[in-house]
Input
Amino acid sequence: MQYQRFLGSVRLAKAVLVGLALTMVATSDAEAARRRHHRVVTRAAASDDGDISGSARYAAYVVDDKTGRVLYSKNADSPRHPASLTKMMTLYVLFEELEKGRLKLDSELEVSRHAANQAPTKLGLRPGSTIDVEDAIKGAVTRSANDAAVVIAENIAGSEEAFARRMTETARRIGMNSTTFYNASGLPDSRQITTAHDMVTLGRALQERFPRYYTFFGVRSFVYRGETVTGHNRVMTRLEGVDGIKTGYTGASGFNLVSSLRRDGRHLVAAVLGGSSGRSRDDHMIKLLTQSLPAASSGPKVASVFAEGRLAKVSTDTANDAEPQEIQPKRAVAAAMIATVPAPAPTPVPAPTPAPSAPLVLTPVSAPMPLAPAPTAARPFNPNAPRIVSSEASAPFRRPASPRRASVNTAPRSRWPRRSCSTRPSRSPARSRRPRSAPPAPSRRAAAPAKPRSPRSPMPRSAIAK
Output
């Protein structure tokens, strides 16, 4: 009995020791894993800032909006892919339509199959459905919805391609000379390029031109069809005074961000392109804004983004009145140049001098021209006048040719002999008829010459009777 109790105590002690050993091993493993994780995170945080500024895709640009002075610039004019920063220009064109009254915030936009089939991220719009303008704006800003951006483009310009051409033309008007758009969403396209400089220009233009609608870029979340849609811009919650504007990412572009900071009467607009991660991009943006803020001006605004472009500002009212889908920039500039050149004054042309003509000479007529003789009156009949007999009376009598014979004789004869359709045998050549065209043979009897008849005596009948 005692042996069994001792054996049980030994087993219990052994189990306790094993448990303690296992606990110690698990604790040491967890501590080692925690330490390894801390080292990795610390190493990544230390290298992220250096990696983003030293990578081949990195570009950054910081401007004091009140004075237009550049506070930081690195690779600012190097070509980069904008990714979803493209939606800033998409909304700029939409704000133009809202400002001109062609659309309203509660206007319904139709969703096409092409728009619904866009790649994520998106709101999940269905073909044939509608979405109002305000929800489309918020969806493009917060979730960076590609389907909402294409819906905006198609309802304004009819197609995404035509809308992209208008986006490029609008970019040229506000001084974005190195930016070309080929879609409205920012999905990957090797031809769609921009620069950090141009993105800052666009961010400033949105605030200066549309201060009312710019507040949409500060929306952090909204409810759409019962679902809360949250935004991607973490810098607005991490740094005080940041009021926008847009994030973007594709595999070719890296992590992009445009931010606007207002604090202590100062206003900065900055762009960071080509970040290696969203966290490193946000950290680098916060660092640039914090370092540049003391150098910014706190006085009144004295600079305009439209006057700072490398091209002169074109009047926005005149440019918006034209049809953006049909105007070509080169043709518009050429037309403006032609309109400003005054037309040359017409050179007076002297009137032609008529050549001197020869004087008209009138020849006098010596005698009047004879007129047609007047008709004479008929002579009265004289019964005693001698009678004159015509010589034609003594001519031999000839039978006039019959009409049939005349018509046959006058017709041209054929070169070839005429074939007879009759069954009667043809006559021999010796007894053949004479040609119809030959004249009739003269009469054998010679015509005696006509003797002239003596004229009658004009003597009266009474003398002759005697």
Summary: DSSP finds 14 helices and nine strands in the chain.
